[in-house]
Amino acid sequence: MQALIAIGSNLGDRECLVSLALAAISVRIGPISKQSTWYLTRAMVDPESSAGQVSNQFLNLVVASESTLTPEQILAALLDIERNLGRERGVVPHGQRWMPRKIDLDLLGVGSLVCGSWRDSDQWGGAANSTLGYDECERRVPVKGTGLVLPHPELQRRDFVLVPLVEVAPDWTHPVFGRTARRLLEQFELEGGEKFIEAPYERAESV
Q1: Measured at the alpha carbon of residue 102, what is the angle toward residues 51 and 108, in degrees to the nearest 5?
Q2: What percent of the chain has pLDDT over 70?
């Protein structure tokens, strides 16, 4: 089954850390069949709690991995890869949601599986809901909590996920919203979503 994974880094040697993450994903989860462009992305900052804070740009990309693991096993492997690459998931300062990090690996989706507390997810039928408006879709997003939630509940709000996702899996259909990745990006742009991507990243040539 195809696992869609978002990768990000904005601390340390970002290019090296992302490259190590890619190698680990191939070994631990499954061969990478598609890889997007790497993007330089403005860091997300909490306006109320981080006034004046300047964070390094992220490197962001999305890959598709062909895996025989369960979603729970994939998530466990991703968390282990993060730990091995120096990610520390400590206590987040009060009022802050986003912190700089050496590596960030997010499981966006695994085929058409739905996991976690999607509101009314048992009543949804994929394509039957393809005409739902943006606000109606947002009302189905689960309240953030613990445990695995698939698809990733915020992927439709982030251009640095949607743009590379469309490169690797344009026809992947969100199993709750009933919209393809391409359509989600179109909807994001139509609704004037905040944009964080600044430019494609040119990787250093191997010596």
Answers
A1: 90
A2: 75
When mean pLDDT is compared across 6-10, 15-19, 141-145, 183-187, the lowest value belongs to 141-145
Write phi, then psi, for 183 (nearest 5 degrees): -70, -35
The pLDDT of residue 52: 47
Amino acid at 33: S
Helices (H) and strands (E) in the chain, counts: 5, 6
Check residue 115 and report its DSSP letter: B
Task: Establish whether the linkage from the previous residue to 151 is cis, with ω within 30° of 0.
Answer: yes
* Whole-angstrom distance, CA of residue 8 vs CA of residue 98: 12
DSSP 173: B
Q: Quick one: which of 41, 142, 143, 27 has its CA closest to 101? A: 41
Q: How far is CA 201 from the centre of its chain?
A: 18
Burial of 194 (0-12, 13-18, 19+ CB in 10 A): exposed
Question: Are 178 and 127 in contact, with CB atoms under 8 Å apart?
Answer: yes
pLDDT, position 146: 52
Are residues 10 and 58 in contact, defined by beta-carbon separation less than 8 angstroms?
A: yes
Question: Tokens 């743009």 appear where?
Answer: 163
What is the C-alpha to C-alpha distance for residues 62 and 109, in angstroms, rounded to an integer? 11
CA distance 151 to 134: 16
Task: Please check whether residue 185 is in contact with residue 166, taking contact to mean a CB–CB distance below 8 angstroms.
Answer: yes
> CA 39, CA 4: separation in Å to the nearest integer?
17
